[in-house]
Fold 2Fe-2S iron-sulfur cluster-binding protein.
Amino acid sequence: MTVTPLGIPRRLLEFTLDGEPVRAPEGSTILEACRAAGKDIPTLCEGDTLAPKNACRVCVVEVEGSRTLVPACSRRAEPGMEVRTGTERARHSRKIVLELLASSVDLSTTPRAAEWIEEYEAKPDRFGPDAARLNEEPRVDNDLYVRDYDKCILCYKCVDACGDQWQNTFAISVAGRGFDARIAVEHDAPLTDSACVYCGNCIEVCPTGALSFKSEFDMRAAGTWNESRQSETTTVCAYCGVGCNLTLHVQDNEIVKVTSPHDNPVTHGNLCIKGRFGYQHVQNRD
């Protein structure tokens, strides 16, 4: 029997969402209220295990009385506020952001990016072939995961997961300014020479595939990666007694990567190097 902790009850507040009265628990963000009401608001940098960073600006909405569009991922819902999610101004802003992102980075492995580009009629190609792109080869300097800066949108989620919000390793941060800004380890050294402990929690939160399992990277390069043929099984890590939950992603009877449920009260999506990468012995058939 599954026991769901009730926690401290929160008061409900009322406000108007696209002309309809809605209720949301006190402290909810506009984005959380929109999701509860069944409204699909695009977002890239928001994550359910991290504090919002307001970096991608794809989730902006209009709030009555606000001079500017506000990010739904971090703006708290307030009693009596009037929120409009699908106005021409909000849709145009999302369109421009998607065009700028898609023209400068590779969003091919970003979930739903192609869908949103079509929905908002974004045209990244209108900036022409000279649009600023990094055009850097993926960095493969270890056997566990790959860094592909051509897919990085500088959402800072990996920095937060590595830093004070979860791992407290502080192996990575933002280096450089302007067009030269990038996620890097100290002195932009190889990952093997950094403070990285290879927990892979940065991969867990990356929204674009800029960080990916080496196994997934190799299978994509070979054209064999197929999520429609993959099954997911949640189990308990056997390495120690903490009780971390693992979700095994299996394709063709082989484990291809390991994640962790974000709603698990023990891990909240986080794992150590053994839990995330130490699965090869399971399929050793010698």
